[in-house]
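Researcher: Quick test of sequence recovery. Tokens follow.
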């Protein structure tokens, strides 16, 4: 891991996460460790720790560091969980999750990004991750149930497959809304239905079926 990026990464955590309410020490430690610059194009590496999302190709982005921290903190992971991620992208959020739970199962619908994430995660030495190229709205029934689900795309409704594949008492975090105007929502499965908590306004790429 390049020493040149250690100071920007520490500054990212101190200035973009801690000052904005990310208090989970495990999340802060993970984001202090995962080399975000390895998950973006070489030409953008010098911008990897700035307070913004960045393009990763195919019309997709790597999320703003604060939003990665916020969504991860809302999962409240303790270390034993099996987590389903919808939208692998370049693999950065996947890498953060992998440091906080037992195993991550991540689905990406775009083949080129799926392969890019596989390469990035291998290079960054994250071994407790399983990747799949397919329709994330169908979940991953083969490995269900999951303790938590994180969705890196905005939609208007939670697919039934996710409800069925989530453990009782499990949590699902996703941006809800349409046309780039979303609100971050934490759902909790209770007796086969959802409870809902609302958090930050945000903007995500749309959740796509198929």
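Model:
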């Amino acid at each position: 891991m390049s020493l040149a990026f250690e100071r920007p990464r520490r500054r990212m955590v101190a200035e973009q996460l801690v000052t904005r309410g990310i208090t989970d020490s495990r999340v802060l430690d993970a984001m202090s460790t995962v080399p975000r610059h390895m998950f973006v194009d070489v030409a953008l590496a010098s911008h990897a720790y700035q307070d913004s999302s960045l393009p990763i190709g195919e019309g997709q982005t790597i999320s703003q560091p604060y939003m990665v921290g916020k969504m991860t903190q809302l999962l409240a992971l303790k270390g034993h969980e099996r987590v389903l991620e919808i939208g692998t992208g370049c693999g950065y959020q996947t890498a953060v999750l992998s440091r906080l739970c037992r195993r991550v199962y991540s689905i990406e619908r775009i083949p080129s990004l799926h392969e890019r994430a596989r390469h990035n995660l291998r290079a960054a030495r994250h071994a407790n991750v399983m990747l799949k190229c397919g329709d994330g709205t169908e979940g991953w029934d083969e490995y269900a149930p999951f303790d938590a689900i994180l969705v890196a795309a905005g939609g208007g409704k939670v697919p039934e497959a996710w409800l069925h594949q989530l453990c009782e008492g499990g949590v699902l975090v996703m941006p809800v809304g349409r046309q780039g105007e979303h609100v971050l929502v934490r759902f909790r499965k209770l007796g086969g239905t959802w409870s809902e908590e609302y958090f930050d306004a945000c903007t995500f790429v749309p959740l796509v079926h198929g």
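Residues 84 and 124 are 20 Å apart (CA to CA).
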